[in-house]
Input
Amino acid sequence: MSHSDALRTLQNMQQESRSSELSLWTASRGGDQSAFGLLFDLHKDRVFRHAFRLLSDRSDAEDVLGTVFFELWRKRNAVHVVDGSILPWLLLTATNTALNLQRATRRYRLLLSRLPREDRELSAEDQAYLRSNGLSPQLDLAIRGLSPIDQGLVALVMIEGYPIAEAATALEIGSTVARKRLSRLRVRLRDSLSSTTPADLALEGNGS
Output
């Protein structure tokens, strides 16, 4: 098979996948819980991985996963579909939910730090998962100081690899605006990192 034939085959498969997802989503919007369950199976791993990257805690990531799909069902008539997929909406909602979870617990941290306790260690499984999917602590901290739109751009483009145009559509901003913001973001994130690793530099995302 030639390269052009392989590319056409891949594009056809992607188109069929998006068409199938859109059919499931249409049924879900009509109240079909079986179709909604299939959508959950389709995207749960991607959403969980994204939440775990932000939270570094399996239990919290599972809570975010449940909240995201609860919100998907609750707001199913207002969800923004991008190029036939609800995944960008799911990832943005996971980002917002994860950051809100951390803000909600921040007020307890000072009190907890004063209580006698043993340091919690991640399980070997979680440590391995975080090494392969996590963000560096420096980059994670820098992202938390961004505006919601900038956090969304980082989540979709730099972390998840979406094209800028699709991320802009999901965030309901213009592609030109998204491209300019992302350019400034990359400079800001580099400047805020005390020691940039190759993995951090790799988070350039899809510039198309």
Summary: The radius of gyration is 19 Å. The domain at 33-134 is CATH 1.10.1740.10 (Rna Polymerase Sigma Factor; Chain: A). Residues 3-29 form the longest helix (27 residues). Residues 196-204 have pLDDT under 50 and may be disordered.
